[in-house]
Design a protein that fits this description.
Blueprint lengths: L1 E5 L8 H14 L3 E10 L1 H12 L7 E5 L5 E9 H10 L4 H16 L7 H15 L3
Parallel strand pairs: 1-2, 2-4
Antiparallel strand pairs: 3-4
Protein name: Endoribonuclease YbeY
Keywords: Cytoplasm, Endonuclease, Hydrolase, Metal-binding, Nuclease, Ribosome biogenesis, rRNA processing, Zinc
Main location: cytoplasm
Length: 135
């Protein structure tokens, strides 16, 4: 089950379409859908979480808490809408594309993809592009 929660004025719009897409992303990786919660928030909200839970004093677009067991994908994905908007402007892409990229990014982490090295980041970016096309 995929749910969407809002700690800011932003709302996705067609949640059912996003839910179906994210389910397809999970299926495309031969995984099963558990309970996934998306929480959309602002920079301040995510910064507090970053400091409290990860001991990082930096702004970020996404923080995910992975509760995946085996092939059952589950977790809480926190997304700063402010950061996504800024990244979309910086990378000169539509906001809708960037929000999908970040949403897919969280799922891909749960599927085992990493992004700490340049090589891993390249694979992650290719996977994000592939998953956005499923929308």
């Amino acid at each position: 089950m995929i749910s969407f929660n809002y700690e800011t004025g932003f709302e996705l719009g067609n949640e059912q379409q996003y839910e179906e897409w994210l389910s397809a992303v999970i299926e495309s990786e031969d995984k099963s859908e558990g309970e996934i919660n998306y929480i959309f928030c602002d920079d301040d909200y995510l910064l507090k979480m970053n400091e409290e839970f990860l001991d990082h004093d930096t702004l970020t677009d996404i923080i995910s808490f992975d509760y995946t067991m085996g092939n059952l994908i589950s977790g809480d994905i926190f997304i700063s809408v402010e950061r996504v908007k800024e990244n979309a402007e910086e990378f000169n892409v539509p906001f809708e594309e960037e929000i999908k990229r970040v949403m897919a990014h969280g799922i891909l982490h749960y599927c085992g993809y990493k992004d700490k090295t340049d090589e891993d980041s390249q694979v992650m970016r290719e996977k994000e592009d592939e998953k956005i096309k499923l929308f």
